[in-house]
Amino acid sequence: MTDPVTFPPSLWADTAPPRTPAPPLAGTVEADTVVIGGGFTGLSAALHLAREGRRVVLLEGQAVGWGASGRNNGQVIPTLTAAEPDAWVARFGETGRRFAELIGGSAGLLFDIVRREGLKAEAEQTGWFQPAHSPGRVKLSEKRVEAWRRFGFDVSLKNARETAQILGSDFWHGGMYAPTGGHINPLALARELARAAEGHGAVIHEQSPVKWFERQGAEWVAATAAGKVRARALILASNAYTGKLAAGLAPKIARSFIPVHSWQMATEPLGENLRARILPGRQAVSDTRGDLRFFRYDARNRLITGAAIIPGLNDAGRAEAKAARNLAEAFPELGVPKMTHVWSGYLSMNWDRFPRVHKLGPDGWAWAGCNGRGVALGTALGREMARAVAGEDPRGLALPVTEPQAFPYHALLTRMAPAYLAWLRRKDLTEPDL
């Protein structure tokens, strides 16, 4: 057994229930499905397949939840950042409609799994709120509410007075509220999904980075430094960390998105007087800015927030100062809060904010491009890909397949990505053209 993986310091690493690491893969094993990646997508796929009695082996390069799934803000959001439901239908027809419906139902699916499997993940289905940061963005919220309600989802528009009641602040102007959303401890969720999947018979191997995979005859082969898995089906679920541990792993997919560094942090626990006035309903909140402002409580009444910065000197300190100023501006009675934990990781972004689903070959699936909304979406796509490899006709599933399109000059664009933040900040100062 190798030494346990050291997790990047974070609030989640300090508070998630411990997990005894699964042993690395050794030798050659047979499975019905091999899953690459121990984040929300891979764990959801493994859980759903194992519940159906399938022999599934999951290979994780570090430890369950080590990547984006264990480092994010933990908001469970049933929408995407920019791609609206009608746009999915326009691009993919009925498959796009099914995908929009998958997105709209994704938060409910996650909380249903938590309840069904008894997962101890600090789950609070208190709703998700997207407040509008300008009067023009209220009109954008109106359009989003109208679009999602046409697709049958329970969302509503809140006016300025209702928004102030929800947030405990008059800093915003209105917004869209989705009651199925909420928040979780993301590393706890990942570890609990792993526990549940193993309880249903899935086999997990940690510290087992996949060096390569390929189709050999009628089966897939995924190889690590110490072993191989031979399987009828394969699901690649490494998303933003594709290529991080093995540069040759799905290079075209790895170059089809831009990895963006994201900072998260946590305040000291708020006293009950402040907690009862600031965000009294404990919703998850992320507003309409491109330079996003977002926050929610954890189980210990800390505000979990974050900030995007242009990299330079003292990135952690500058991100902490920016997030603290943002909270103080919206909630003057809070003052400039002290952060007890500051951490970071990567998310995957693409040019149009549309997640990409890829068919790798017979019974082979992958996706990439969470665009900052991977908690609910990744969990839902894990289930959907599990259904595909279990034998359901993919033409009837929510899997809008495209070919991976690598960014030209990917390394250069990755270095230039921080400049996009400056453009977003300027755009936030103008009203949308609706």
From TrEMBL:
Sections of the chain in a coiled coil: none
Ranges for region Disordered: 1-26
Keywords in alphabetical order: Oxidoreductase
FAD dependent oxidoreductase domain segment(s): 32-387
Superkingdom: Bacteria
Official protein name in the record: FAD-binding oxidoreductase
Gene source species: Rhodovulum visakhapatnamense
Classification lineage: Bacteria, Pseudomonadati, Pseudomonadota, Alphaproteobacteria, Rhodobacterales
